[in-house]
Amino acid sequence: MFIEKASQRAQTEILAFLLDYKNNALCAKEAPPQTQLFDLSDSGDEDESDWQYSVQDGCAVIERYTGDDPFIIIPARLDGKSVVKIGSYAFCNFKALKGMIVPEGLREIGPGAFKGCANLAGAKLPRSLRHIEPSAFLGCEALVIVAPKESYPLRYARKFGIDAAETGAEK
Question: InterPro entries under this entry (predicted)?
Fold first, then answer.
């Protein structure tokens, strides 16, 4: 289902790096590596019915994800409003979540936003992200954060002992 959604996107991103990293580095003893390629867009045109959000200062704050896709793209806009924050506990204990892309424009991730997402293996985070609460990724033991070189998300990952990889092409 997610592959179909991804193939309909206008822009592309590759999540294969994350899956390949997880397969090679974290799951080498469990099973032979299986590299999967997903062409993903970070255009943020997700089904708006999957998102519960509030409006603060004219911008959208994601309060809860109600969908069931294991790989998601956080929308850049909801009902024409820029998404600037993922609120407290928005994805808490969403065990099916394996990977996500967060578009440019998001500035903050609230407390416990992804707490208990034990299968979250990869998160592509933007340079625009300026604050991530310390408890945002609590219990995400397999997580690899992918973010632009010298960005706040990379500093956050290093500070809290989360595996990280940098993307050099983005400015």
Answer: LRR_5, LRR_dom_sf
